[in-house]
Structures are given as C-alpha cells and as structure tokens.
Amino acid sequence: MNILVVGRGGREHTICWKLGQSERVKRIYCAPGNAGIAAHAECVNIAETDFAALVEFAKRNSVDLAVIGPEDPLFAGAADAFEEAGIRVFGPRANAAVIEGSKAFTKDLLKKYNIPTAAYETFDSYEAALAYVRAQGAPIVIKADGLAAGKGVTVAATLEEAEEALRVIMLDKAFGAAGDKVVVEEFLEGEEMSILSFVDGNVVRPMPAAQDHKQIFDNDQGPNTGGMGTYSPVRHIPESVYEEAIRTIVQPTADAMMAEGRPFRGVLFAGLMISKDGPKTIEFNCRFGDPETQVVLSRLESDLAELFLATVEGRLEEIEPKWSEQTAVCVVLAAGGYPGPYNKGDVIEGLDQVTESVVFHAGTALDAEGRIVTSGGRLLGVTALGADVDEARRKAYADVERIRYAGRQYRTDIGKKALK
Ligand code: AMP
C-alpha cells in the first residue's frame, strides 16, 4: 500500500514513523514534510491546501490512502477533494471538521444532545455580550467563535480581563471574522485531559489519555503555546473517569454527528476538564493533536495503516488496538523567543548523539549544506518510553541535553504532575 501523509509537523513525523513499521505499507510520501520526515518518507513539495496538486500527485503515484494531518486543509475540504477523486482518505469531511472549526456549532451540538460541557451563551452583538458578562461576573471564559490559532480564548480571572477580551475580539477584530461571534462560558475548575479516538462514523476506538503542557514556562507560567510537552498514560486520573468520558462525551458526540448527517471519520480529539461533577467537554479537534500524537502513537503496538484503513472503511468494530503499558513522555524543544518572534536558520547539533528517545521533527529544515536548521517555533519533540513516568522523563531529558542550538528553550517539568 502507498500512503500520502499531508502536513509538516511533529504530528506528521510521528505518523510517518509509525506507518514505516507497517508491513502493509510500501511507499510513504509526505507533502510537504520536514527535515526529519525525510528519513521515513519521500517528501513532496506541495502545500497542504493545494488539493488539485495533491490529488494529481496521488493519482500519478498510485496512492491508496491519503492521511490529512492538520486542521486547516480539513476545514477547507481536503477529505472531500480526495473522496471526489475516488481516493481513500483518513480525516473528516469539511462538514464534520466543523466540530473544531466553529465553537458555536459544537456548543450548540453538545447542548442539543445533552453532552456535558460548560454552560454558555453565544453572541454576535458586542453590547449583548458585555451585558451578559457583567451579569455573570468573573471568573469567566471568553472565546472567539472561529479559528484564532489557539489565541482566541481568554480565561478571565477578573471582569476587567473579560471586558478587554470582548473588546479585542469583537471591536478591534484582532482575529478577523473569527471574532464575529463570541462564546461566553462558565469557568470550569479541575484537571485537563485529552482523549483521542479513532472514529469510523459509528464505532469509537479510544486511545489512551494524554496530558499536554500548554504554557511556555515551567509550572504553567507565561503565554500559551501550541504545546510544550505531553505524557501518556495519565495514571492519577482513575480509569473510571476515563470510561465515563468515553460513555458520556466521546461516543455520544460521534452519534450526534451521525444523527446530524455529518458522520465523523478520522481522529476525534476531546479536550476535557475533569471537574468535581465529572468530565466536561472543553473543545473538540478534528485530527491528531500535536504533541499528543508523539506520546500516544509511541505506545501503539498495532498496525497504524490497518487502523487508518478500518476507520475509512467503517470496519473499526473488527479491531481492538493494542497499547504498550509503558509511559511515554515528549519534551518539546522550541526556538528562543517562541511563542513571540524567534530566529530561523540556526544549526541544530547533537541529533546523532540521541540514544534513549525518538526525536520527532516539527519546525526544522535542511540548509544549502545539508545541515538541519531551525525553521519554526516548535522544533523537536524528544519522546521516550519508560517503565514509569520517572524513567521516561529521565531518558527524554538526557537526550534533550544532547541537542544543541542557539536559544534552546524547553520546559523542565513535563510529566511532573504525574509524579505526585
Ligand atoms: P480551547 O481553545 O477552547 O481548548 O481553550 C483553551 C484553553 O482554555 C483550554 O485548554 C483550557 O485550559 C482553557 N479553558 C477553555 N474553556 C474553559 C472553561 N470553560 N473553564 C476553564 N478553562 C477553560
């Protein structure tokens, strides 16, 4: 089988690496890929949203399955384009990807089907939103409806912060049309957890839970990022809570999408808050998370290509994926200054000295002399397996120390929460 993976991040590197272990897979292409992906796949210089060129490439190279990594091409109809061309594709159609693309759509869906989430109201008028926020008081959560690159959410501790967020989103239009509507949400207290699931429309096959570290600095300080590290499993959250989340949130959401005529096929990523009243939905993503994928797929013992095919063909019922008992920890190495402005083109050294982890590349490139250089904010995900979180952390951080470049930045506390 020949597979075309679309994307260029750590998530796609992990997918290509795992597909490379499958006996069913003959050739792996990745568009556009990155410097690390080139070790597992043939990188093809086509942009993620150039569907005509992607489909044309897939036809010319006898691609049996396309796998869409990032959300942007999914929102824009990547899966639809491949389907229309008669090529099997892993990832939801645009009408199902909306579960990530519009927070208002998802909140309304959850309300309609009684799926646990924070109480909320949606507004398209600034004045009405402001009046509601003042009536509710702080703490309160303000979210731009559309896509704002993860920056459209303000967890406001005070009324002033909440009002400022409304102004920035609705009056200053800091996120453009994404701020035409806002969702104002009840503040949920608790611990966060992510559950990613393969969903074939009807059947849900959940992956083990993972926890992300969103903020740039240790102890969850500083601005939010795309994610600075992850670990899996999350042993201090009881299995019964995980099962409750599948039963009350993930499966009912797959069923709701089906009932709405928007069957979800692909990876449904549930961002959950474990509140004192049980798990509640914070958000859904319509694809693998980055860097959740690095830890979760590191623990997958089954054939990923087979899981992708079973999802696409509606045969997930036949498959029970196997997961390693080991703990995986992924530490993200970022460019100095990230998530603000950062340098590009700095040479990364020491990758050949890594002994205890797998290093998944994100924002890396090859320079004219064939050296691996920095070319993004998040650069590498150093991912190790261990008997427990302690061992996985020790291995990952030992390798982190072996990798050198100007301005190296990473958190030193990934997985520490699980040590308690
Ligand atoms: P979202 O983009 O909706 O996932 O929100 C980004 C982050 O904001 C989440 O990962 C949470 O840490 C936080 N957050 C979102 N909604 C709430 C809520 N209702 N209560 C508390 N924190 C929230």
Q: How is the secondary structure organized here?
A:
Elements: E1 2-7, H1 10-19, E2 27-32, E3 42-43, H2 51-60, E4 65-68, H3 71-75, H4 78-84, E5 88-90, H5 94-101, H6 103-112, E6 120-123, H7 126-136, E7 140-144, E8 153-156, H8 159-171, E9 182-186, E10 191-200, E11 204-206, E12 211-212, E13 215-217, E14 221-224, E15 229-232, H9 239-259, E16 265-275, E17 278-285, H10 292-298, H11 304-312, E18 327-334, E19 358-361, E20 364-366, E21 372-374, E22 378-386, H12 389-402
Helix pairs in contact: 1-10, 7-8
Compact overview of the structure:
The protein is of the alpha+beta class and about 425 residues long.
Record the strand order, biggest sheet: 3-2-1-4-5
Bound molecules: adenosine monophosphate
Structural class: alpha+beta
Oligomeric assembly: single chain
Write a structural description.
By secondary structure, the protein is of the alpha+beta class. Helices cover 30% and strands 26% of the residues. It has twelve helices and 22 strands. It has helices at residues 10-19, 51-60, 71-75, 78-84, 94-101, 103-112, 126-136, 159-171, 239-259, 292-298, 304-312, 389-402; strands spanning 2-7, 27-32, 42-43, 65-68, 88-90, 120-123, 140-144, 153-156, 182-186, 191-200, 204-206, 211-212, 215-217, 221-224, 229-232, 265-275, 278-285, 327-334, 358-361, 364-366, 372-374, 378-386. It has a five-stranded parallel beta sheet with strand order 3-2-1-4-5, sandwiched between helices. A hairpin with a 3-residue loop joins strand 10 and strand 11. Helix 1 (10-19) packs parallel to helix 10 and helix 7 packs antiparallel against helix 8 (159-171). The model has no long low-confidence stretch (mean pLDDT 96). Bound molecules: adenosine monophosphate. Adenosine monophosphate (AMP) is lined by residues 118, 141, 143, 153, 155, 185-188, 192, 271, 282-283.
